[in-house]
């Protein structure tokens, strides 16, 4: 069986037949090695340039493909063709400010700047388009033109190769509380860096935090902050705990007693605190808060709660009884609702602080469904509704608390490793990056959403799935 997989993934003939070949992805906090190019469409725009200035990035001006800028090439057989202008070397990223696009004719400028850039993009390069929330664009033509950016960006994501990604950021510029460069900086930094390695074809929404003193993106944004991670004993949960600890957090790693050995190893490895408990217990929220207050002092407050714990009990719906159904919803959805309600009590010692973050781990199954996983899909879709509702809650906004979700796709965990070999090897290539993600990819996305600098993002779901080719 292993020989079949080897042929499918490494044989030259397999490449000729179009079998996807994975590329090592750039990860971590490193920016692209090549220069960042700044382009505009529809008008000059200033938001993106101001944001790059905040990030200390001095961009190159974009080349523009027009009949006048093309050059003629002649091949060995004397045939000629016109080619777009080319950059002198590989570029690391192109950031396109398309917030001024208001007409269909303006979209030609999008094509004209992307064509030369895509031909020169380095491996693990980045295409980031910044547009308006379409519904705020005004006239129907402007709404249509801004909506078109979504189709362009997602298509580019599917055309890119060698680990490059394309994403769209939507901002508010025409409302009473417009997005500022400080609001956009954290998201743009995340998308340019290797932290977003497994995020492509995504649409991210950035509003306005209302906090003029929002911190700039930092290397260790959680220095001295308390972060609680459930389901932290292994897999994605362990990676989340490790990532927050790397970025300066004091981590309280939570898991059930059955995972105690793994939990202790994770906590010891990162210098964190292990807390064994069943998240479905009625007093879980108060026990978490009590542990924080006991360990760190009565005045201590949690900065981030990451709801990662979850279970599956797969069976076709026609064969699912009430006990199997209820157990999944209780762990994956109801427990989170109950814990949030307790930790959000403002006077609770060890509760969630003002300016805090709640991040939950949903799933692409919650978006697209999956045969045999009705209860799991229900719970994960329910989390998306919970996040959306809490993100729109004015009481949380007043306290500066954001609530977001990540939706992982195929991630190379121990559970995924138990999938039959050929099915696994083929299935994990059904995305634009042609590979499974790593637990750290999910962890980086969560850390981004929890970052104090990401105050202008709330009520959102960030997919970490390499741009799946199928499903919602």
UniProtKB/TrEMBL annotation:
SUPFAM superfamilies xrefs: NAD(P)-binding Rossmann-fold domains
GO molecular function terms attached to this record: oxidoreductase activity, acting on the CH-OH group of donors, NAD or NADP as acceptor
SMART domains, A to Z: PKS_KR
Superkingdom in the source lineage: Bacteria
Domain Ketoreductase, residue spans: 225-409
Protein family per UniProt: Belongs to the short-chain dehydrogenases/reductases (SDR) family.
Protein's recorded name: 3-oxoacyl-[acyl-carrier protein] reductase
């Amino acid at each position: 069986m292993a020989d079949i997989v080897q042929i499918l993934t490494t044989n030259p003939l397999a490449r000729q037949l179009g079998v996807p070949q994975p590329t090592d992805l750039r990860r971590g906090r490193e920016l692209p090695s090549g220069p960042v190019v700044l382009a505009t469409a529809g008008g000059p725009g200033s938001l993106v340039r101001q944001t790059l200035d905040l990030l200390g990035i001095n961009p190159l001006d974009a080349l523009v493909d027009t009949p006048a800028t093309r050059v003629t090439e002649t091949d060995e057989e004397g045939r000629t063709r016109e080619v777009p202008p080319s950059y002198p070397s590989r570029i690391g990223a192109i950031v396109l400010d398309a917030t001024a696009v208001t007409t269909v004719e303006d979209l030609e400028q999008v094509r004209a700047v992307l064509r030369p850039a895509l031909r020169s993009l380095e491996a693990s390069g980045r295409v980031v388009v910044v547009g308006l929330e379409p519904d705020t664009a005004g006239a129907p033509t402007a709404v249509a033109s801004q909506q078109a950016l979504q189709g362009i960006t997602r298509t580019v994501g599917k055309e890119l190769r060698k680990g490059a990604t394309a994403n769209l950021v939507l901002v508010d510029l025409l409302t009473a509380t417009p997005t500022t460069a400080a609001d956009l900086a954290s998201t743009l930094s995340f998308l340019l860096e290797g932290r977003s390695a497994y995020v492509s074809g995504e649409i991210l929404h950035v509003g306005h935090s209302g906090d003029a003193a929002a911190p700039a993106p930092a290397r260790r944004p959680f220095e001295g902050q308390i972060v609680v991670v459930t389901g932290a004993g292994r897999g994605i949960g362990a990676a989340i705990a490790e990532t927050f600890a790397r970025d300066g957090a004091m981590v309280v790693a939570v898991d059930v007693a059955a995972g105690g050995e793994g939990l202790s190893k994770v906590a010891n490895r990162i210098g964190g605190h292990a807390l064994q408990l069943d998240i479905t217990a009625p007093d879980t929220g108060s026990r978490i808060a009590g542990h924080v207050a006991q360990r760190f002092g009565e005045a201590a407050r949690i900065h981030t709660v990451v709801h990662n714990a979850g279970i599956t009990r797969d069976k076709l719906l026609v064969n699912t009884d009430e006990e199997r159904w209820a157990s999944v919803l209780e762990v994956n959805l109801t427990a989170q609702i109950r814990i949030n309600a307790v930790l959000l009590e403002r006077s609770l010692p060890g509760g969630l602080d003002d300016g805090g973050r709640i991040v939950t781990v949903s799933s692409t199954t919650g978006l697209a469904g999956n045969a045999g996983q009705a209860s799991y899909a229900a719970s994960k879709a329910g989390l998306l509704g919970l996040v959306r509702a809490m993100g729109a809650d004015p009481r949380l906004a007043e306290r500066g608390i954001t609530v977001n979700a990540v939706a992982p796709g195929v991630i190379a965990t121990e559970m995924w490793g138990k999938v039959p070999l050929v099915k696994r090897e083929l299935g994990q290539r059904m995305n634009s990056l042609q590979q499974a993600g790593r637990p750290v990819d999910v962890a980086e996305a969560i850390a981004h959403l929890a970052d104090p600098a990401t105050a202008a993002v709330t009520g959102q779901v960030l997919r970490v799935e390499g741009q799946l080719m199928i499903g919602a």
